[in-house]
Write a structure and sequence with these properties.
The protein is of the alpha+beta class. Helices cover 41% and strands 14% of the residues. Helix 3 packs across helix 4. The structure holds the ligand Nc1nc2c(c(=O)[nH]1)N[C@H]1C(S)=C(S)[C@@H](COP(=O)(O)O)O[C@H]1N2 and molybdenum atom. The site of molybdenum atom has 6 residues, from loops.
Length: 396
């Protein structure tokens, strides 16, 4: 027996042969699920790009300080559309997988190219959704650095999606124009008999589509609760749902960052560095300055977010005390020597009314895990850039 025939036999045995007439398959179902999937991927890509640019700003990039909830919103959308895309992708793959085994297996160069592009698309999409989901759970069972890989693969995925849409556009248009469960039109123009017409209770495409919307909605609701306080109770997928000292979750504790209670000692200083001049301030110096109170969210890149009331010294006032008059970026340096111990605050954020070096959280002195003695809290910023345990601020 030829190898190709053997493969066909094998696939038939395990039920993976080409069965285009199965009621839950066909372009009409695939196209409808595909549109929803395309919208999710599109929103996820744009919001992901934004998040990446805010954290690694190219020269031309500018991000506003207001409204303070904007990043919370865009990143919530990123994680929610990403999670919603998981069931959509599974259903879509389920409706088309027999085509992977369609004959001829290799065929013309164009067909080969089309199959190669589909393979890239499927692999990149699964990779993005899987690594993104793992990141929301802070579970990194891999060796590569998450953010750069997730970002690079996003371009591959979106490129492959655009090629796929362009190639399939005629099929998509026809399929969307036809009613979901009506008989299919055969190549000769006649109507095919409906799939399993006499099978009472047979699975219809409409049933599959409705179930798909329901499961997708459920997945979205499960994750959106970590961003919307009133929806927190339904958020069973949200790993950090508002617990933590002073009513706020924590990503990295003081202990994990090697910050000991020693920072409570009398020798703690926050040093301001402006044009080669150093101004060391004690915690009492900071407490003696004019205090400002603001309600601002921590919006973690991983999707959870929570609002809190912060009190502290305006960064602008603090730097003015060291002789700085605004208009320049500032580098935040932490006692934490980890990955997020140094961040750069663009000039418009350094000068903003709402940007604080916080000493208090929700009416109490800042908990050690929240960044005691003091931390940065600025409006409309990813949580990862809200540097805790500050020891030094340099005007650039
Ligand atoms: N020095 C330092 N600051 C940090 C971090 C860190 O690892 N080190 N983590 C950041 C991240 S990822 C988030 S989401 C917020 C969380 O702040 P919270 O622990 O006060 O809720 O702190 C940010 N500030
Ligand atoms: Mo974060």
């Amino acid at each position: 027996m030829r190898v190709a025939d053997r493969i066909d036999r094998l696939l038939e045995t395990v039920g993976l042969d080409e069965r285009p007439r199965s009621p839950v398959r066909g372009a009409r179902l695939t196209a409808r699920v595909g549109v929803a999937l395309g919208i999710c991927f599109g929103i996820c890509f744009v919001t992901g790009l934004l998040s990446h640019w805010i954290q690694h700003p190219p020269g031309w990039f500018w991000w506003p300080t207001q409204p303070s909830w904007l990043y919370r919103f865009t990143q919530g959308l990123h994680v929610t559309t990403g999670v919603a895309a998981i069931p959509l992708l599974l259903v879509k793959l389920g409706t088309v997988y027999p085509k992977l085994f369609a004959r001829p297996r290799i065929g013309s160069p164009v067909r080969l190219l089309e199959r190669a592009s589909i393979t890239v698309l499927v692999v990149a999409a699964i990779f993005q959704l899987f690594t993104g989901l793992m990141n929301t759970a802070q579970w990194y069972p891999w060796k590569f650095f998450f953010t750069t890989t997730h970002y690079a693969t996003a371009w591959i995925a979106i490129g492959a999606i655009l090629v796929h849409i362009a190639v399939k556009l005629p099929v998509i248009r026809t399929a969307l124009g036809e009613p979901l469960d009506a008989p299919e039109t055969l190549p000769d123009g006649s109507s095919a008999p409906p799939a399993r017409p006499d099978h009472a209770g047979a699975l219809t495409r409409r049933t599959v589509l409705r179930s798909t919307w329901a499961i997708t909605g459920l997945a979205a609701v499960a994750v959106v609760g970590q961003t919307l306080p009133f929806a927190r109770w339904i958020s069973f997928l949200a790993p950090r749902s508002g617990e933590g000292p002073q009513g706020l979750p924590i990503n990295r504790t003081a202990q994990q960052a090697n910050i000991t209670d020693g920072v409570r000692g009398a020798d703690y200083r926050l040093t301001l560095a402006v044009d080669g001049r150093e101004t060391p301030l004690t915690l009492d110096d900071l407490r003696a300055m004019t205090q400002t109170t603001r309600d601002l969210p921590i919006a973690c890149v991983e999707g959870w977010s929570a609002s809190a009331t912060w009190t502290g010294v305006r960064l602008r006032d603090l730097l003015a005390r060291a002789g700085h008059s605004g208009g320049r970026d500032a580098r935040m340096i932490s006692l934490d020597r980890g990955l997020y111990g140094v961040t750069v605050l663009p000039a418009n954020f350094a000068d903003a009314d709402d940007t604080l070096i916080a000493l208090r959280l929700n009416g109490e002195e800042l908990n050690l895990d929240h960044g005691f003695p003091c931390r940065l809290i600025a409006p409309n910023r990813p949580g990862v850039l809200q540097t805790k345990w500050l020891s030094r601020i340099e005007v650039l």
